[in-house]
Specification:
Layout: H1 3-6, H2 13-16, H3 19-49, H4 55-87, H5 89-107, H6 113-116, H7 119-148, H8 155-159, H9 161-180, H10 185-192, H11 194-212, H12 218-225, H13 235-242, H14 244-275, H15 280-308, H16 310-324, H17 327-333, H18 337-364, H19 372-401, H20 408-426, H21 430-437
Helix pairs in contact: 3-4, 3-5, 3-7, 3-9, 3-11, 4-5, 4-7, 4-19, 5-7, 5-11, 7-19, 9-15, 9-18, 14-15, 14-18, 14-19, 14-20, 15-16, 15-18, 16-18, 16-20, 17-18
Length: about 450
């Protein structure tokens, strides 16, 4: 998208109706693919893409390819964030959607190790890197688009749209895996696992068409007309020089949130099966229930943000996380299915999605228009790459090393994550950004 296009006449109201579906559908498909890969890496890829002589080593190698996606996400957030701030949000959202859709579809067509040897895992890693780039660019860009299409009274509910898409994607992927694993192993390993990946081609085509109908955001168009953005802009320089405090806020909130979220969603499942001998399908079904609940929680939390403020919702979520730190494991340790599902629903169906919903508006407010996408992408993905990937591993190591496999150290991790979220929220830069946005075009280098 060119600067002249950005500064053109505003689109008709009917095109703005495409914004909500474009954000939700796009985020849902992006994260459906991302979570689907995680499940298949744990269940299938080790046997299909790596030597079968040592199943444990093959599974570990398969899970390592999942971690590669986290390493690629910061690059996606930074690179596509800069593009979004220079040339427009719509351009980025269309590009990242195709990137994730095509790479995911191609995974479903890959030959296996038994057919082509080492070429198979190499191709898998390359496509996983492309997935990571797409996922890293998606959430920050989608959040900026949803926020910038809202007015002051609806920023909470519209800013929550990407979070709604994320949870729809999680629900869809968990349900898909549940259905596929209900058939025979022969079906799953022969070609059943390929079905959802190949289907991504058709879904990506539909989603790309929806996103192309979406107009550019009013705030970007205004910034383009006042020469605050465009081909000559240097959003990364401005971000690091003038908006570094907002970047620190986003990193702190994301570090705490992602660490808490992935321990709740992933470590808890390993803990149940490894240390409490609970069947794997019990925890998996609990995550499915929690995801369904989150789809309801997110829009409610978004509306609450418009009443009491997104910052308040995040702080309440942080307090609730700390309050759940010990009771969460007490419920898991009962081994009772209903108690386990209750713990997972409270954590990943209510508390975590409520905070994610509020982050849409709150984190967007940390940056002026000219650095919003790069700020969100860089802060989210750099912070998330560390906590999202390392927190579950650290939790597993702590429980393994603790006598009796006690969980008190992991509970303290929850408390620490909650404290980090709260600290980030309390040092927000909203007033400074509002003052910066009020400056004339010639003062864009001012302090934020």
């Amino acid at each position: 998208m060119t600067l002249n296009n950005a500064a053109s006449a505003p689109p008709d109201p009917s095109s703005r109706k495409a914004v909500g579906p474009a954000v939700v559908i796009g985020s849902a498909l992006e994260w459906f693919d991302f979570y689907l890969y995680a499940s298949m890496a744990a269940l299938v890829f080790g046997k299909l893409f790596f030597p079968a002589s040592n199943p444990t080593t093959a599974t570990l190698a398969s899970m390592a390819t999942f971690a590669v996606g986290f390493l690629a996400r910061p690059f996606g957030g930074i690179v596509f964030g800069l593009i979004g701030d220079k040339f427009g949000r719509k351009t980025v959202l269309s590009a990242t959607f195709l990137l994730m859709g095509i790479s995911s579809g191609l995974i479903g067509l890959l030959p296996t190790y038994s057919s082509v040897g080492l070429v198979a895992p190499i191709l898998l890693v390359l496509l996983r890197l492309l997935q990571g780039l797409g996922a890293g660019a998606e959430l920050g860009s989608a959040t900026a688009v949803a926020y910038e299409h809202a007015d002051a009274k609806t920023r909470g509910r519209k800013g929550s749209l990407p979070a709604l898409g994320v949870n729809i994607g999680l629900f869809g992927s968990s349900l898909t895996v549940t259905v596929l694993t209900s058939f025979s192993d022969e079906f799953l390993y022969d070609w059943g696992w390929r079905i959802p990946f190949v289907a991504t081609f058709a879904l990506a085509g539909l989603g790309f068409w929806v996103r192309r109908q979406m107009p550019e955001t009013p705030e970007f168009e205004k910034a383009a007309r006042t020469a605050k953005v465009g081909a000559k802009a240097r959003p990364l320089r401005s971000l690091l020089q003038s908006n570094w405090r907002g970047l620190a806020v986003v990193m702190a909130v994301t570090l705490g949130y992602n660490g808490v979220s992935y321990i709740f969603k992933t470590f808890s499942l390993s803990y149940l099966t490894t240390f409490r001998d609970v069947p794997a399908n019990v925890g998996a079904f609990g995550i499915t229930l929690a995801s369904a609940c989150a789809i309801i929680t997110v829009p409610i939390a978004g509306r609450i943000c418009d009443v009491v403020g997104a910052k308040t919702v995040i702080l309440v979520g942080a307090a609730a996380t700390a309050a759940l730190a010990f009771p969460f494991f007490w419920l898991l340790d009962t081994g009772q299915h209903v108690a386990i599902w209750t713990a997972l629903i409270l954590a990943t169906g209510v508390v975590v999605p409520a905070m994610l919903s509020a982050q849409g508006a709150f984190l967007s407010q940390q940056f002026p228009t000219r650095t919003r996408v790069s700020g969100l992408g860089t802060g989210r993905e750099v912070g998330g790459a560390f906590s999202g990937g390392l927190a579950p591993v650290a939790a597993l190591a702590l429980v393994t090393a603790t006598p009796g496999h006690a969980t008190w150290a992991v509970s303290l991790m929850f408390v620490g994550g909650a404290a980090l979220i709260a600290v980030g929220a309390l040092f927000d830069q909203i007033k400074a950004v509002e003052a910066d946005e009020a400056q004339p075009a010639g003062a864009v280098g001012g302090r934020c």
